[in-house]
Write a structure and sequence with these properties.
- About 70% of the residues lie in helices and about 5% in strands.
- The protein is mainly α and about 230 residues long.
- The protein has a two-stranded antiparallel ribbon.
- A hairpin with a 2-residue loop joins strand 1 and strand 2.
- Helix 1 crosses helix 2, helix 3 packs across helix 4 and helix 8 packs antiparallel against helix 9.
- The two termini are about 45 Å apart.
Length: about 230
């Protein structure tokens, strides 16, 4: 029998095994057993996913609570530091496999930021861009972390707005005072009064929307990550 024939047969067997495991896990799980109204043997039963929105405390150091999301954050930071330390400690012009792997990650993140901020500002943003209680839990399922990220992002965006285009131009982007001044200069009093009132109203709404972004950033990331974990659990 040819090697190609053996590989094809092995691939088919592997697919059949994976499909069988998938069907068994679904039928034996909470959803499948309820859906098909069957009694699953005890050895095949899967417990209902334990869904808790606040991060759970694993232990305490004095009065400080060590949560599972905090542990995940520490592990993530340690792994990132180790990966990039060993990948860059002996950098070569012709990179090896480990250095190439690290460069692919960095270039991917750099390209994403470049597509959003543009080539001119990419260097400004790039250095700053990151029933059984599980011992490890995704850090971004802790609303405290997503809130801190949202606050830092909000302050950084406003700081860049003032420093990159100047305070007057940045404020003018909200209220369009330059358009009002142009109408007054041309003695278009009706336009100056009408658009002036509208622009001030819209500007206040825009400023309010910037502060609301802190809430939207916080709960959008928190909701996406938490929903993903719940979906994986189910």
């Amino acid at each position: 029998m040819s090697k190609l024939g053996c590989s094809s047969r092995l691939g088919i067997i592997l697919i059949i095994v994976l499909v069988a495991l998938l069907l068994t896990s679904f039928i034996a799980g909470p959803l499948g057993s309820k859906l098909f109204k069957i009694s699953v043997p005890h050895d095949l039963q899967v417990s209902v996913p334990h869904v808790v929105l606040p991060s759970e405390a694993m232990f305490h150091v004095g009065d400080f609570k060590i949560t599972n999301t905090l542990i995940s954050s520490w592990i993530t930071i340690i792994l990132l530091v180790l990966i990039f330390f060993f990948a860059t400690r002996r950098m070569k012009l012709i990179p090896g496999r480990f250095q190439s792997f690290a460069e692919v990650i960095v270039e991917g993140i750099y390209g994403t930021i470049q597509g959003i901020a543009g080539e001119k500002h990419v260097r400004t943003f790039f250095p700053t861009a990151t029933v059984i209680v599980p011992f490890l839990r995704a850090a971004n399922t802790d609303v405290n972390l997503t809130l801190s990220i949202a606050l830092v992002s909000f302050c950084f965006i406003e700081f860049l707005g003032f420093t990159k285009i100047g305070p007057l131009h940045y404020i003018d982007s909200f209220f369009q005072f330059s358009a009002i001044g142009k109408a007054i200069k041309n003695k278009q009093w009706g336009s100056a009064f009408g658009f002036g009132f509208i622009n001030i109203y819209v500007g206040l709404l825009e400023i309010l929307s910037h502060f609301i972004r802190v809430i939207s950033f916080t709960f959008r990331l928190f909701g996406n990550m938490t929903a993903g974990e719940i979906l994986l659990g189910v």
